[in-house]
């Protein structure tokens, strides 16, 4: 007998859960003592209502260590067979410049950032998004572009609803050209039906159909590759007062007359081919640009230029009053999380290549296509269109399947359009060698070389549609041509921002936890990154296995029967879940069930999604404790009994409390014939402890970019899987181009790609594999402990607003500043901005209750960081007290003037407090001090003077 540890003991020091969970066991013991419990079990028993607790642990594979999980992922990756993709249909292989791949996509300074609601610590990513907006606006020839949408198909659907809002005459028909990507058509169908929009699909080159149109959409170039002149069509639409939408390929627009000059009101599309890997369907940034007069109708986020307290230009989100978090059921759309990280990449691709580089890339793509077509003609193959950009459609009567198979045997995927034609799309990676292979597949070896044919073949772009106007003239698109310059630009921008790689981001409702490096690594492996979403499924076996595993694990974790990973954000999961409820009622002949009950405290996406799903929102009051007011619920159910479709509740509530009444709420709604939607964005407080499908809910969405470690990326990407009980499973999303994406009885697609943002699913897969059932449960317990620890430590300084049983909270706490504000004039914004001087990202401001701050520490922050945060808030409370007592000036004090910049300290100092108090309060920061690049930003100014593309450099002079 010896005390020597065994080999197995020695291996346990690499347990991933202990890396993921911040506080060590010793620290957790100290935290428990502070909260007043002897053990974690005792705390959890006291905090989580027994009636929702799951009787058993999760049945998941045992945790594996990081090396083993990477090995498993490598095996999955190896089961994917990445061929040359010439399928097209909106997804193209692209070269991600290494400097962008490593320094944006693989760089935590960019990928762990939060949505830029605190603009002073987000100037870097806001500038990057402004570059994106400027590139999109320039290329489309329209003045205002938003800061990214979820994908091309949903952007088209958003354009359709925008057109309808803009229509003053209440018309109901929307015409779509038949030569539009099939997945876009399918998503438009899904979205049109519940809104009562009559979708007319027709060949619009023959003129407008005879319908009461509020808008039209054409693809440019078309899905078939044809480049048509849409001027007359768009003029005819405008004549009728209908909004003209053009779904356009940005790369083609470097050579073709842009939509704005053709007469379009709106342009939409994808920016994937600007350096963003296909990733089996996503994530990529969709875009939308609009003409003057429609900016206030834009869905999603919009970056604008404003000024800071010194009058210097500064960026921030513009016109937020359009968005769901403020307008709720009257919002322009339900979009919250979008695709910021991917928009940053696409914008940087434009910055790096500049207008000349982009044009050359586009010309090369086009030349390959033109030469390909000429070679096919020489082989006697009929090419359908004379004029195209990158896609050649070959007529091959009866031979399409054989040719697609032969090309595949030669390592190339083509698009089988029907029995008689195939589509071939060239992209940035296309080579002459690939053209030669294709010619052999189609006929025989050509006598000449690709070079000979290149010299002998003219362009195939319509002469009347050649682009004459300039684009990307702003210096930012001309100054970063060397890799050194680009590297430093990326570094300079990320240094302006606070992301998780520098500080805790204590945001309530958003679960900013660790995004582990091991989880992130596989995302850029080519076997995952270069897969086309419509590649034959037998080439994507690794992906399919990973998808089925994750669906199964999430079903187990939530207690539901089936899961769809297609929705590419929480809002989209909500929408899919509500459509499933709608379809269920209708399948039972209950068409009149259209009322959706939503508590006053709900996240803004809930109400906006319900409206998109064709429902009417009825608000249920909350009581003074923040819980659903059961009397009001009973009254609302009674008033709408026959029309009751569903209730949408967030659990634990958006107030961060485990409501005891949840099972009664579910029962009351069920009794009246309604369905229960539990918004699962707060699953971080339930995972491993309770399962919504078990305690009474019928459907939930989860946010993998919250609970399951996909990074926020500055506001996206996300994945919002929807999980349902058995009776709703037949109504999950599906996809016209994949039999594996959902039930054939489903509601249609809610995203462009069959499995949504499949490219980032390895992150959540890895998280579950690394943690195992016990690790996930322990993470939840640590999150609840950390939140209660913070609540306890902050309570002497600030009132904690809501608590549940035993005075405990769930995973987040709300501190109430309303009285403090009344007494001292110091606002939540002052506290949030002052935290920047202390080196912290602010908590969530004024949600779910105005005048409060909501804090969610997550399980990943260690005790030192929690204590540093408590110390900062305590010191700020002392400063507030000094304002209250008159020791600090009421108007000119460090809170009101926060944040303080370095430039400000170096200049004249007119304030009645010390410079050191301004910049190094309570010794905060020291050598590691974070310096905000701008002073407090005037939000209103920017909305009154809307500027949404790169300002001229003179704006920054002096
Ligand atoms: C984050 C969140 C959502 C929205 O999710 P997105 O991915 O941003 O669309 C919905 N509900 C709650 C409670 C949330 O916290």
Automatic annotation (TrEMBL):
Reactions listed under catalytic activity: N(6)-[(R)-lipoyl]-L-lysyl-[glycine-cleavage complex H protein] + glycine + H(+) = N(6)-[(R)-S(8)-aminomethyldihydrolipoyl]-L-lysyl-[glycine-cleavage complex H protein] + CO2
Keyword flag Oxidoreductase: yes
Domain (Glycine dehydrogenase C-terminal) ranges: 779-900
Lineage of source species: Bacteria, Bacillati, Actinomycetota, Actinomycetes, Streptosporangiales
Cofactor: pyridoxal 5'-phosphate
Subunit record text: The glycine cleavage system is composed of four proteins: P, T, L and H.
Keyword Oxidoreductase: yes
Highest taxon, organism lineage: Bacteria
Entry EC number(s): 1.4.4.2
Key words of the record: Oxidoreductase, Pyridoxal phosphate
GO MF annotations, alphabetized: glycine binding; glycine dehydrogenase (decarboxylating) activity; pyridoxal phosphate binding
Protein name, UniProt field: Glycine dehydrogenase (decarboxylating)
A single cellular component GO annotation: glycine cleavage complex
Family as reported in the entry's similarity comment: Belongs to the GcvP family.
Its job: The glycine cleavage system catalyzes the degradation of glycine. The P protein binds the alpha-amino group of glycine through its pyridoxal phosphate cofactor; CO(2) is released and the remaining methylamine moiety is then transferred to the lipoamide cofactor of the H protein.
GO BP annotations listed: glycine decarboxylation via glycine cleavage system
A Pfam cross-reference name: GDC-P
Modified residues annotated as N6-(pyridoxal phosphate)lysine in this record: 706
């Amino acid at each position: 007998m010896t005390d020597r540890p065994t080999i197995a003991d020695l291996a346990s020091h690499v347990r991933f859960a202990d890396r993921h969970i911040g506080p060590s066991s010793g620290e957790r013991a100290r935290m428990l003592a502070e909260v007043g419990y002897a053990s974690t079990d005792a705390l959890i028993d006291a905090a989580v209502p027994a009636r929702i607790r799951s009787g058993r642990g999760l049945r998941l594979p045992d945790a594996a260590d990081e090396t083993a999980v990477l090995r498993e992922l490598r095996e999955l990756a190896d089961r994917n067979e990445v061929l040359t993709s010439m399928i097209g249909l909106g997804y193209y292989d692209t070269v991600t410049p290494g400097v962008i791949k490593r320094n944006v996509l693989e760089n935590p300074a960019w990928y762990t950032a939060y949505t830029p609601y605190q603009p002073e610590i987000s100037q870097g990513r806001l500038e990057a998004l402004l570059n994106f907006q400027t590139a999109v606006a320039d290329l489309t020839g329209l003045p205002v572009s938003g800061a990214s949408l979820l994908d091309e198909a949903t952007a088209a659907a958003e354009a359709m609803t925008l057109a309808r809002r803009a229509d003053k005459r209440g018309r109901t028909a929307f015409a779509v050209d038949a030569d539009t990507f099939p997945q876009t058509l399918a998503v438009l169908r899904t979205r049109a039906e519940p809104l009562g929009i009559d979708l007319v699909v027709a060949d619009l080159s023959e003129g407008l159909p005879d319908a009461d149109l509020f808008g039209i959409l054409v693809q440019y170039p078309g899905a078939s590759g044809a480049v048509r002149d849409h001027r007359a069509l768009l003029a005819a639409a405008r004549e009728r007062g209908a909004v003209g939408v053009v779904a356009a390929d940005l790369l083609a627009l470097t050579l073709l007359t842009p939509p704005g000059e053709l007469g379009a009101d709106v342009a939409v599309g994808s920016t994937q081919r600007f350096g963003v890997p296909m990733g089996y369907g996503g994530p990529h940034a969709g875009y939308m640009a609009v003409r003057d007069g429609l900016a206030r109708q834009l869905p999603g986020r919009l970056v604008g230029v404003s000024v800071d307290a010194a009058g210097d230009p500064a960026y921030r989100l513009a016109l937020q009053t359009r968005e769901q978090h403020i307008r709720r059921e009257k919002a322009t759309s339900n979009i919250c999380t979008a695709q910021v990280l991917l928009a940053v990449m696409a914008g940087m691709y434009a910055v790096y290549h500049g207008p000349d580089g982009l044009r050359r890339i586009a010309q090369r793509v086009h030349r390959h296509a033109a030469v390909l077509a000429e070679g096919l003609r020489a082989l006697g193959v009929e090419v359908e269109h004379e004029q195209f950009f990158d896609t050649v459609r070959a007529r091959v009567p009866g031979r399409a399947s054989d040719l697609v198979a032969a090309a595949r045997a030669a390592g190339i995927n083509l698009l089988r359009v029907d029995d008689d034609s195939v589509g071939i799309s060239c992209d940035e990676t296309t080579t002459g060698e690939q053209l030669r292979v294709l010619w052999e597949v189609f006929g025989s070896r050509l006598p000449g070389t690709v070079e000979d044919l290149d010299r002998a073949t003219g362009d195939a772009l319509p002469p009347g549609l050649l682009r004459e106007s300039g684009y990307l003239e702003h210096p930012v698109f001309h100054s970063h041509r060397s890799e050194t310059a680009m590297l430093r630009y990326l570094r300079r921008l990320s240094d302006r921002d606070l992301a998780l790689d520098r500080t805790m981001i204590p945001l309530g409702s958003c679960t900013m936890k660790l995004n582990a490096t091991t989880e992130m690594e596989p995302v850029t492996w080519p076997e995952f990154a270069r897969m086309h979403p419509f590649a034959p499924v037998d080439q994507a076996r690794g992906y399919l296995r990973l998808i089925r595993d994750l669906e199964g694990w999430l079903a187990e974790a939530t207690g539901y029967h089936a899961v769809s990973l297609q929705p590419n954000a929480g809002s989209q999961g909500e929408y899919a879940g509500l459509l499933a409820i709608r379809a269920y009622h209708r399948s039972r002949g209950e068409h009149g069930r259209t009322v959706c009950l939503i508590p006053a405290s709900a996240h803004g996406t809930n109400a906006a999604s319900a409206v998109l799903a064709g429902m009417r929102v009825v608000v249920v009051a909350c009581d003074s404790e923040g819980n659903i007011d059961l009397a009001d619920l009973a009254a609302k159910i009674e008033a709408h009994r026959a029309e009751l479709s569903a209730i949408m509740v967030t659990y634990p509530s958006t107030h961060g409390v485990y409501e005891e009444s949840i099972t009664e709420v579910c029962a009351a709604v069920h009794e009246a014939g309604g369905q229960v939607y539990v918004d699962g964005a707060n699953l971080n407080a339930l995972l491993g402890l309770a399962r919504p499908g078990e305690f009474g809910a019928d459907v939930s969405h989860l946010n993998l970019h919250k609970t399951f470690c996909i990074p926020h990326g500055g506001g996206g990407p996300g994945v919002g899987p929807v999980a349902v009980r058995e009776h709703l499973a037949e109504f999950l999303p599906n996809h016209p181009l994949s039999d594996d994406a959902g039930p054939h009885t489903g509601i249609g697609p809610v995203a462009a790609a069959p499995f949504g943002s499949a490219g980032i699913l390895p992150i959540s897969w890895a998280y579950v594999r690394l943690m195992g059932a016990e690790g996930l449960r322990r993470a939840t317990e640590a999150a609840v402990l950390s939140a209660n620890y913070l609540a306890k430590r902050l309570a002497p300084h600030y009132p904690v607003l809501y608590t549940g049983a035993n005075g405990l909270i769930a995973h987040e706490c709300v501190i109430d500043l309303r009285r403090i504000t009344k007494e001292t004039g110091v606002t939540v914004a002052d506290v949030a901005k002052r935290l920047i001087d202390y080196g912290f990202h602010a908590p969530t401001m004024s949600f779910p209750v105005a005048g409060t701050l909501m804090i969610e520490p997550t399980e990943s922050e260690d005790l030192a960081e929690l204590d540093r945060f408590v110390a900062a808030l305590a010191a700020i409370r002392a400063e507030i007290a000094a304002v209250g007592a008159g020791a600090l000036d009421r108007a000119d004090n460090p809170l009101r003037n926060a944040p303080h910049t370095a430039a400000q300290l170096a200049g004249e100092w007119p304030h009645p407090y010390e410079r050191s108090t301004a910049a190094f309060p309570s010794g905060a920061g020291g050598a590691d001090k974070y310096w905000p690049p701008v002073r407090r930003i005037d939000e209103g100014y920017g909305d009154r003077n809307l500027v949404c593309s790169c300002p001229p450099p003179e704006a920054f002079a002096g």
